[in-house]
Amino acid sequence: xxxxxxxxxxxxxxxxxxxxxxxxxxxxxxxxxxxxxxxxxxxxxxxxxxxxxxxxxxxxxxxxxxxxxxxxxxxxxxxxxxxxxxxxxxxxxxxxxxxxxxxxxxxxxxxxxxxxxxxxxxxxxxxxxxxxxxxxxxxxxxxxxxxxxxxxxxxxxxxxxxxxxxxxxxxxxxxxxxxxxxxxxxxxxxxxxxxxxxxxxxxxxxxxxxxxxxxxxxxxxxxxxxxxxxxxxxxxxxxxxxxxxxxxxxxxxxxxxxxxxxxxxxxxxxxxxx
Amino acid sequence: xxxxxxxxxxxxxxxxxxxxxxxxxxxxxxxxxxxxxxxxxxxxxxxxxxxxxxxxxxxxxxxxxxxxxxxxxxxxxxxxxxxxxxxxxxxxxxxxxxxxxxxxxxxxxxxxxxxxxxxxxxxxxxxxxxxxxxxxxxxxxxxxxxxxxxxxxxxxxxxxxxxxxxxxxxxxxxxxxxxxxxxxxxxxxxxxxxxxxxxxxxxxxxxxxxxxxxxxxxxxxxxxxxxxxxxxxxxxxxxxxxxxxxxxxxxxxxxxxxxxxxxxxxxxxxxxxxxxxxxxxxxxxxxxxxxxxxxxxxxxxxxxxxxxxxxxxxxxxxxxxxxxxxxxxxxxxxxxxxxxxxxxxxxxxxxxxxxxxxxxxxxxxxxxxxxxxxxxxxxxxxxxxxxxxxxxxxxxxxxxxxxxxxxxxxx
Lengths: 274, 411
Hints:
The complex is a heterodimer of chains A (274) and B (411). Chain A is mainly α. Chain A has 2 domains: 1-145, no CATH class; 147-240. Chain A has 12 helices and 2 strands. In chain A, strands 1-2 form a two-stranded antiparallel ribbon. Chain A is elongated, with a radius of gyration of 24 Å. Residues 248-274 of chain A have low confidence and may be disordered. With 411 residues, chain B is mainly beta. Among the domains of chain B are: 42-93 and 107-178, Lipocalin, CATH 2.40.128.630; 328-411, Thrombin, subunit H. Chain B has 2 helices and 36 strands. Chain B has helices spanning 5-28, 71-75; strands at 51-53, 56-60, 65-69, 86-89, 118-119, 123-127, 133-134, 136-140, 145-146, 152-153, 159-161, 169-170, 177-179, 182-186, 191-196, 202-207, 217-219, 222-226, 231-236, 242-247, 257-259, 262-266, 271-276, 282-287, 297-299, 302-306, 311-316, 322-327, 337-339, 342-346, 351-356, 362-367, 377-379, 382-386, 391-396, 402-407. In chain B, strands 1-2-3-4 form a 4-stranded antiparallel beta sheet. The interface between A and B is large, with 55 and 62 residues.
């Protein structure tokens, strides 16, 4: 399994990254930025699909909450009504999961490539030889020059600059898509989640190679740009008001039972009251 | 796909948790990058080879200790340390500017020793690798001293470099070389240091402009050293003045070896190169299937070079023409040794091969059972191996039988 992963995913990304370093005059920092941009652009259709799907799911929350209130004592009915609502609006709840699942291996490969290419120790450098192609552009770039701006890419940023950038961009990206919660319990949980991830990654940055943190910053910035254009603005970052429901393709008032539900209810009654 | 409400909730949770879980898992596997561990590969452990004096082997263990091991005592199974044996722990402090990691765990790390020590009658010279920093230690060869608590104490004649405000030089990966009364060593900051072998005071220093992870070679008053900018420097051993430098098409992977007036070295573009020692002009180059990581062995008109493409090549030293090749089971990381008419090499997986130096015909092969990256050492008809599990093995060159093995035990 590891061999398959290395051959088909890790090594193509790793060698492309190193070859790219040769193209950009041996500057590994620039190569990380360029490859992150290229990968994010290649995955753009999937990202857009995921962003739209997430946005639609969020916009549907008020309706779902209404249903939850209405059918608080009837779980089965709640389930049926929720499913119906998704169907009517044309949302597949798994719709935002698949693009994410497809993108994950590429993110991980990019992440591992940066770590391996930096070869912080002699053992790492020796291990790197197992994964390199015999391309001239690759052999001429290795071992990589780890200096970029004020950073040594295989070492953590001695200043707090990258940690702040990683945490800040991640917070902005999350804030743009996180709708404010309606009840206080949910609100405190949402705000904690929105803060926890950026804080965690900010902490990671203090201990991790700055090359990796550079990748996180660039990836977050691209994510923000995509979200800005796909969702049409700063989202919940600028106007943290309750989300407006998206217009359904075939809207029916949630309170009113649809004929399908009525039929299902009748069937159920019929089933239980023989 | 038919979805239940429960599965929708589970999906939502999954959407939130999956990226976090995956990223955290990968991220945590990359913790302590400055030590080089995690998904970037293994951490800094070192791969010291052996130097010998008066029949005793001196080397660095993988937990940063310097040891003297007497093969006679080991073959007799005596309690370690016997009369001529000792262990010396190099005490290190947290490198300056070390990051405060998770939970602000102490950032001090043991020293890694990559280079083979240099030995004289009185001192053992060792270069250390601690994150970005390094030091050169000169330890009393017959027996280092310890205080009442068992902590190594400095005795007269011992020294370390640098001292005082400077604190440290760049991390040392190559071996220190003693030539005459001077110790030469290169560091990761790209500097070559020439130190007085007796007092440890600096004689001269030369900035090469690129990381040095290989050893210098010294011959006829000239110091040859390569760096990761692909430059081979030729310096006067007296004052460190530059005689010539040549820029090669790729970074220099192996330590240079000088024979006659030719410098042999491997570069990261898969070539073994022969460079004229007087002018820096390239005489010939030979292409392998991967890096020539280990320094080649030159005897007479033949260059024996182990390559990471699993092959040992024998080349004509004058023309670079291939004489024979021997394919091993895994990459050749360790420098081979010549014992009489046999070339003994070891693969990374721990398979030892003895082949006829003239023809490349196999004489015997045996398995150590552990991975090996340290260079081999031959003495008195025996080949000594330092394995990745910190074991010392002695192999009889005549028949390939393991004479003894000794597993170093950490505190």
